[in-house]
Amino acid sequence: MRLQGIAVSPGIAIGKAVVIGQDSFSIPREYVEADAVEQEVARFREALQVAAREIENNRDLVTRELGPKSGAIFQAHLEILEDPKIREDVESLIRNRQYSSEKAVSLVLRQFAEMFRRLPNPVIADRAYDVLDIERHLLRALLGQPHRSLYHLTSPAVVLARNLTPSEVANLDRKMVRGFATELGGPTSHTAIVAQGMGIPAVVGTGPFLTEVSGGDIVIVDGDRGIVIVRPDESTLREYEEEARAIRAFITELEKLRDLPAETLDGTRIEIYGNIEFPHEAALCLQNGAEGIGLYRTEFLYLGRNDLPSEEDHYQAYCEVVRIMGDRPVTIRTFDLGADKVPLQLGLEKEANPCLGLRSIRLALRYLPLFQTQLRAILRASVCGNVQIMFPMISTLAELRQAKLMLAEVMEDLAESRIPFRRDIPLGIMVEVPSVAVTIDRFLDEVDFISLGTNDLIQYTLAVDRTNRNVVNMYNATEPAVLRLIHHVIQEASRKGVPVSLCGQMSSHPLHTMLLIGLGLRKFSVAAHSILEIKKVCRSVTVQQCEALAKRALEMDHARDVQALLREQLIKLIPAFSRIM
């Protein structure tokens, strides 16, 4: 049996199936006597404390092992659990309708989850699974039931389930669980994020199949292609076993490139920098041979917490990265909040089109005290090493000049207070809005460097919401319009002698490396895990080959034709990539 689902965590897992059913909570009673109401409220409050301790333990475990990004998921769970509205609604049902704690908890949290499911943004709709995770914590606490048995496996296995919550994935034994597949779930769910952090091959959203699987069946989970194969035939099994061995061998080969330069066969030097979201990721970039940090996303400081980060919070986080990187450049992007990254502390109103609304630099210029706090911290950190500042989502010259004016004012405040900072700190912008890409020549005179942010540039150029499942198939980095904009920006920057990098997901995929070199790019900023792959491509090609490829791509009319060309040429040069693409 072969199933197609959604690939959420790469890799190939082969093993015997362990089939996990849904938690079965049998509510022993629906109502309580009038004189037992306050005792029932006390029982609910005690369950809240037990559930909170469980979630805190998950948060601390995941933060310790996977970093703050994954840990923040469970901090968000804790905040939902502590939401006064949930507590009030549950206690109201107990007091006014004499519901048992179990029934009241289930009713309130199911309604809460349904509210999320109805929201049009799939990223936010997926939070319904988080609410159901919290419901399970509370019901287990109330009923005294243990967790499901998938945490105590005695032999390597592939876990199959209708759905897994983030808590359940976080508690999987990585020595025993080779991979997992679920009938439900989406690519933006917190379950997917935790799986990626743990490095467990995973496929979600396959649709119903559990009734046709028995425990002990051999299962293949292909986390690269989103495929689940139950009871594979011998030839398929051999093929996947060989593919898994080839991938391991290729990874070993890539590791030999760590200390070698990213230089093409004809001697052109390509610079490879790392993208990070959390300070601890800088060390991994360094281990993989990054020449600096080309994009330090700073939104994590605002998310998953009850208060706004202080200047000292910012300063310590930035200094940690700068110290790790030594004299290598660290480009700190000012916060890109809004859209799908909304800090609860700001109390922002819901917008019909948040990606086109108050986000990023627009939000910074609206909430000036937040912006000033961050700029002060970056400038203070600039004396610790090689720091650069980058403004995101600039769309007009007026906007850039307003941001620069704010930076100048903060500099003057620091100077008056005799706080040291680097006055000549390099300043750049993200090129991710078509208005800037088209008129880039006007912006190049006002900045020291630019970075192409293709994630949003593609979205805005093609008018495709990259989080919308209905149109995500139209979101494509190789559309002719996107390639022409990238080529134009690189050409103009080269003509004016302004350094240009590309820091979107496009730069992290080896499929695009030859094309980008051919378009004139000489500086990549990529995810830490992609550094060695991109370096491998750079060291396997000549600039002439890449330019010829780019010329052909620019003449094509369809993204699918460009992709086919890129895949064909890459695999011809480096056959091992056929195994991981």
UniProtKB/TrEMBL annotation:
InterPro entries: PEP-util_enz_mobile_dom, PEP-utilizing_PTS_enzyme, PEP_util_C, PEP_util_CS, Phosphohistidine_dom_sf, PTS_EI, PTS_EI-like, PTS_EIN
Entry's localization field: Cytoplasm
Annotated Mg(2+) binding sites: 432, 456
GO molecular function, one term: metal ion binding
Active site: 190 (tele-phosphohistidine intermediate), 503 (proton donor)
Keyword Metal-binding: yes
Binding site for phosphoenolpyruvate: 297, 333, 455-456, 466
Main location: cytoplasm
Cofactor dependence: Mg(2+)
PEP-utilising enzyme C-terminal domain ranges (all copies): 253-541
One record GO biological process: phosphoenolpyruvate-dependent sugar phosphotransferase system
PEP-utilising enzyme mobile domain ranges (all copies): 155-226
Key words of the record: Coiled coil, Cytoplasm, Kinase, Magnesium, Metal-binding, Phosphotransferase system, Pyruvate, Sugar transport, Transferase, Transport
Coiled coil: 34-65
Protein name per Swiss-Prot or TrEMBL: Phosphoenolpyruvate-protein phosphotransferase
Organism: Thermogutta terrifontis
Source lineage: Bacteria, Pseudomonadati, Planctomycetota, Planctomycetia, Pirellulales
